[in-house]
Design a protein that fits this description.
The structure is a single chain. Helices cover 64% and strands 5% of the residues. It has helices spanning 11-27, 31-48, 53-79, 110-136, 139-145, 151-161, 163-181, 191-216, 226-250, 254-278, 291-312, 332-338, 363-370, and strands at residues 3-5, 86-89, 93-94, 103-104, 107-109, 355-359. A two-stranded antiparallel sheet has the order 1-6. A two-stranded antiparallel sheet has the order 2-5. The longest helix has 27 residues, at 53-79.
C-alpha cells in the first residue's frame, strides 16, 4: 500500500490558514498585496505539498481561475464603457431588448479594464488559497475534525475536493497507458477518443465503487431519533432568528437585530451540540491538535487582525482604484501584516521520516476509512 509522510500541521491549522488568507485578500484587495498572498500560497504548496494529484492540481486550478478572470475582463471591457483614458474603439452593436438592450463593443477605456483585472486577480487569489489548502491538508483528518452533526455533509465535501486531483491522476494514467501501447510513439489520430473514454469509464467505476462502499456501511441509513428531530427544529428556529435579524438590520433596528443574532447563534450552537451528541460514531485513531498547532493558529489569525487595524486607521494602500491612472502603492506595514501567513513554514514536512499508515487519499478510499468503526 502506498504511504505518505506524516504531515506536520493539523487539518484545523490549515483550515484556519486558508480562511485567514482569504480574509486578507478581502481586506487588502490591492493587486500588490493580492500577488503576495498568491506567492505565499504557492510557497506552501512547494514546501508542504506531496507528489500527489492534490498538489499537482494547484497549477491547473489557478490556470482555470486565470482563464475565467481574463474572460471576465473581456466581457467587462465589451459591455462597460467610459469616457476617460480611451485605449481603442471596437465595432459595436446593440443587444435586443429582451436580452437587456445594452451595447456590446465601442470605446474601451483603461480604468475599466484595469479595474476588471484587479477584481479578477482577487478571484484568482481566492482560488489559489483554497487550491493550496486542498494540496497540503490531510483529507482524512479533515473528515475526522468535522463535528459529528455534519459528518455526512463533510464526507460529501471531501469527496468533492478530491474530484479534480483524481481526474488529473486518471488523465495521467491514461496517457501513460496510451504511450505504452504505441511504444512511446505519439499517435495523434484518434488520441482524444482514446483518452477521453477511459477517463470517463474510470470516473464512473470510481463513483460506483464509492456508492457501493457507502451503501455497504449503511451511510445515512439510520432513522432520525427524537433528539435529532429536536436538534433539527432548534436549528430551524435559529435560522429563522438569523433571518429576522437580517430583516431588522435592514430596518435599522440595531438593538433588535443584535438580540436576534445572538439568539440565532446560540440556537445554532445548541443544535450542533445536540446532533453531535446523538450521533454515535467512533473516530479511528484521531489526531489531536497540539500546542504548536494552537500557536500557529493564533499567529496566523494575526494577519487579518492587523490588516483590519490598518483599514480602521485609514491605510490607503489596501485598496486601489485605477481612476486616475496610478501604480498600486506598496507600503511596509501591510506587507509586515501579511508575514504571519508564513508561519506554517516553521515546520517542514519530513520526506524521509516515519511514514503515516494512512494510504494516499482517493475518493473511494476516503469514504471507506471514514466509515471505520461505525
Amino acid at each position: 500500500m502506498q504511504t505518505q509522510p506524516e504531515r506536520p500541521w493539523h487539518a484545523i491549522t490549515w483550515s484556519v490558514w486558508a480562511l485567514a488568507s482569504a480574509g486578507c485578500i478581502q481586506l487588502a484587495p490591492s493587486p500588490v498585496y493580492t500577488v503576495i498572498v498568491v506567492a505565499i500560497a504557492w510557497l506552501m504548496v512547494s514546501t508542504h505539498g506531496l507528489d500527489l494529484p492534490f498538489a499537482r492540481a494547484f497549477g491547473l486550478l489557478v490556470g482555470i481561475a486565470a482563464f475565467f478572470a481574463v474572460f471576465r475582463v473581456v466581457l467587462t471591457a465589451a459591455t462597460t464603457h467610459g469616457s476617460e483614458d480611451l485605449l481603442f474603439t471596437t465595432p459595436s452593436f446593440r443587444m435586443p431588448e429582451i436580452l437587456g438592450g445594452f451595447d456590446v463593443g465601442g470605446a474601451v477605456s483603461a480604468p475599466i479594464v484595469l479595474r476588471a483585472l484587479s477584481e479578477g486577480l482577487v478571484i484568482v487569489a481566492i482560488i489559489a488559497v483554497f487550491a493550496a489548502f486542498n494540496a497540503v491538508v490531510s483529507h482524512f483528518e479533515l473528515v475526522q475534525t468535522i463535528p459529528r452533526a455534519f459528518y455526512e455533509l463533510g464526507l460529501v465535501v471531501v469527496v468533492a475536493l478530491a474530484f479534480v486531483p483524481s481526474t488529473i491522476a486518471a488523465i495521467h494514467d491514461v496517457r501513460e497507458a496510451d504511450r505504452a501501447r504505441t511504444g512511446g510513439r505519439v499517435v495523434r489520430r484518434g488520441r482524444l477518443v482514446r483518452q477521453v473514454v477511459p477517463v470517463l469509464e474510470r470516473g464512473l467505476e470510481q463513483a460506483v465503487t464509492l456508492a457501493e462502499s457507502l451503501d455497504s456501511r449503511g451511510f445515512a441509513h439510520g432513522g432520525a431519533t427524537s433528539r435529532e428531530r429536536g436538534a433539527g427544529w432548534t436549528g430551524l428556529g435559529a435560522l429563522m432568528a438569523l433571518g429576522a435579524a437580517f430583516v431588522a438590520l435592514v430596518a435599522r433596528e440595531r438593538t433588535v437585530a443584535l438580540a436576534l443574532a445572538g439568539l440565532g447563534a446560540a440556537g445554532m450552537v445548541l443544535a450542533i451540540r445536540f446532533a453531535s451528541v446523538t450521533t454515535r460514531r467512533i473516530r479511528y485513531r484521531p489526531r489531536h491538535i497540539t500546542t504548536i498547532d494552537r500557536c500557529c493558529i493564533v499567529g496566523t489569525l494575526l494577519a487579518p487582525a492587523l490588516l483590519s487595524v490598518l483599514a480602521l486607521t485609514g491605510e490607503q494602500s489596501l485598496t486601489w482604484t485605477p481612476s486616475p491612472l496610478t501604480w498600486p502603492a506598496l507600503h511596509a506595514l501591510p506587507v509586515l501584516a501579511l508575514t504571519p501567513l508564513l508561519l506554517p513554514l516553521v515546520r517542514q514536512r519530513r520526506a524521509n521520516g516515519r511514514a503515516s499508515v494512512h494510504p494516499v487519499p482517493r475518493p473511494e478510499a476516503t469514504a471507506e476509512r471514514s466509515e471505520v468503526g461505525t
